[in-house]
Design brief:
The complex is a heterodimer of chains A (about 280) and B (about 290). With about 280 residues, chain A is mainly alpha-helical. Helix content of chain A is about 75%, strand content about 0%. In chain A, α3 packs antiparallel against α4 and α3 packs across α8. Chain A starts with 11 loop residues before the first helix and ends with a helix. The chains are: A mainly alpha (about 280), B mainly alpha (about 290). β1 of chain A pairs parallel with β1 of chain B, so a sheet runs across the interface. Chain A: This is Spermidine/putrescine transport system permease protein.
């Protein structure tokens, strides 16, 4: 199709400069935007006073000390870690298997399978939490159990397994299946092919899925809020605190939470790049 | 590239791998969802659920305009949030995919970390930043501005800021992936055919990035419809959105059928809006210049 020639309103060099300005500028602005609350929290965690207002009365590590003496916070930290570890193991396992099925095989029911396995991705978390809470409440009345750690873990796995599936699927997609055939031709058993060929090749994807799963669970608010019963994790502990009035403890909690997060994200990135 | 293997769906190896996901999502996603639908046709008496079938809840839902006003407000906020996220995310995703060669991984790590950090804490960070005596005004006064320059905390603006903040990364990731997959030679071909950089972008890159834009928009919309943290913490709970209404119905009023019905209404309307946009969008593509 022919387009009428239009006199450009900018010459090529100016156009390129403008494009670069917009592009680099937007990245810079978005990074600033993303880190505004994070740096605010870190800054506030080192302040001396009881009130979370500026200017600071002074700098100190006082609230970190208080944090480690606070048994509720320590308990919440322990619960968060426990839930995240279990959610990570199950979500990664289920997600990995589902990714292999969805990408490597062509079979009838493939589309319904993928849709079902990925469905919770597009479901608002609070509503997923509520729907599951109703489910567990009705089941709980029947079989006499209460919501708590276990139901929270189940809820997290339902929500996170699809994420793990998508991450591993990318790795499966780039997978060279002839390597498996080669191993089989050399006399490897099905298990040996898995153990020595398939798994090592998919490992970087599985590993980053695991880290993502851990962090998604660790930072999850909505599902824990609905499903953990009286068990508190860090996010729900902080939320219940904010709802009743802010405490100088929370910025310190936040900063403590950030550290393993950034380390894990860097680690996951290293693994993925090594594989690429 | 992995070879696709043809299998019968009854193949034992395939079934074994598919089973965990199928079991999990049928027992803990599909079944609860169906039960929620069934719940909407029940009644409560003295805060206790009665398993007797009735249309009471639904007549209540359809006769009280209050629920629908809140739903309208929620949809408006969600659509605005999608528009803002797409507008902000596109240049960032484009820059990530086409510029920033050496910094690309660092930027990706920074965005991923910000995305994966606990939303409650980040939202609280915004409260500290936007507060009248908070960091924003302190910085503004340091720069010589008089009075309280930033005064949006506990308004819909703050809610919107929080929503965009918490959901933006989804659009950046999906759009980045679709731009990253574009074959460079197509753009070079457009240059050879005499297209300016802008025209090549408009006629080649943008249409090819559509799947990512669309995926990001749908994901963000469906998540934005269900937010409750941002309106509560940043909006001060002044103009409740549907998720907050639903939460109250369950927790304060202990009315499960009504809560379940409002959940279903919200989900149905959300999916309907997505389908509607999809239809308008594909119509436009068929009727517009090819």
């Amino acid at each position: 199709m022919a387009y009428p020639s239009v006199k450009p309103w900018l010459n090529a060099a100016a156009e390129a400069r403008l494009a670069n300005l917009i592009l680099y500028g937007s990245v810079a602005l978005v990074l600033v935007f993303f880190y505004v609350p994070i740096f605010t929290l870190i800054a506030f965690s080192f302040q001396e006073g009881r009130f979370l207002t500026l200017p600071f009365e002074g700098f100190s590590l006082r609230w970190y000390g208080e944090l480690f003496r606070n048994s509720n916070a320590a308990n919440a930290l322990w619960n968060s870690t426990l839930i995240a570890l279990f959610a990570m193991v199950f979500a990664t396992l289920i997600g990995t298997l589902a990714a292999i099925v969805a990408v490597r095989y062509r079979f009838r029911l493939r589309i319904p399978f993928t849709g079902l396995a990925a469905a919770p991705l597009a479901f608002p978390q609070l509503l997923l939490g509520i729907v599951l809470l109703l489910w567990f409440s009705v089941l709980g009345r029947q079989f006499n159990f209460n919501t708590g750690l276990v139901t929270a873990i189940i809820g997290h796995v339902v929500y996170i397994a699809p994420f793990a599936m998508v991450i591993v699927a990318v790795q499966v997609f780039n997978f060279d299946a002839t390597l498996e055939d080669a191993a089989r031709d050399c006399g490897a058993s099905t298990w040996e092919v898995y153990r020595y060929v398939t798994l090592p090749l998919l490992w970087p994807g599985i590993f980053s899925a695991a880290i993502f799963s851990f962090l998604l669970s660790w930072g999850n608010f909505y599902l824990t809020y609905s499903l953990a019963g009286s068990t508190r994790t860090l996010p729900t502990f902080v939320f219940s605190g904010i709802a009743t009035g802010s405490s100088p403890l929370y910025p310190a909690i936040a900063t403590v939470v950030f550290i393993p997060g950034i380390l894990l994200v860097i680690l996951a990135d290293r693994m993925r790049r090594k594989a690429a | 590239m992995s070879a696709v293997i043809d299998r019968s769906w009854r193949d034992p190896e395939l079934l074994a791998k598919a089973l965990p996901a199928v079991l999990l999502q049928t027992t803990c996603f599909l079944a609860p969802l169906l039960m929620t639908i069934a719940l909407t046709f029940q009644r409560t008496r003295d805060f206790q659920l009665n398993w007797t079938w009735s249309l009471y809840t639904w007549t209540d839902v359809f006769t009280k305009p209050h629920y629908w006003t809140i739903l309208g407000h929620t949809l408006f906020m969600a659509i605005l949030c999608v528009a803002l996220c797409l507008a902000i995310a596109f240049p960032v995703a484009y820059a990530l995919a086409t510029r920033l060669r050496s910094f690309q991984n660092h930027v990706k790590v920074l965005i991923t970390f910000a995305f994966l950090t606990d939303a409650t804490l980040k939202t609280f960070g915004w409260v500290l930043f936007l507060d009248k005596n908070g960091a924003a005004n302190y910085l503004a006064q340091g720069l010589g501005f008089e009075g309280e320059l930033v005064n949006i905390l506990f308004t819909d603006w703050a809610t919107m800021l929080g929503m965009v903040y918490n959901l933006l990364a989804f659009a950046i990731f999906t759009i980045y992936l679709s731009i990253d997959e574009i074959d460079r030679s197509l753009i070079l071909a457009a240059y050879d055919a005499g297209a300016s950089k802008f025209r090549a972008f408009w006629e080649v890159t943008l249409p090819l990035a559509r799947p990512g834009i669309w995926a990001g928009a749908v994901l963000i919309f469906l998540l934005a419809v269900g937010v409750f943290l941002e309106p509560k913490v940043l909006g001060g709970g002044k103009s409740p959105m549907s998720a907050e209404l639903i939460r109250q119905t369950f927790e304060t009023r202990v009315n499960w059928p009504l809560g379940a019905a409002l959940t279903m209404v919200l989900m149905t309307v959300a999916v309907f809006v997505v389908l509607l946009f999809n239809r308008v969008y594909s119509l436009k593509r068929h009727m517009g210049p090819a």
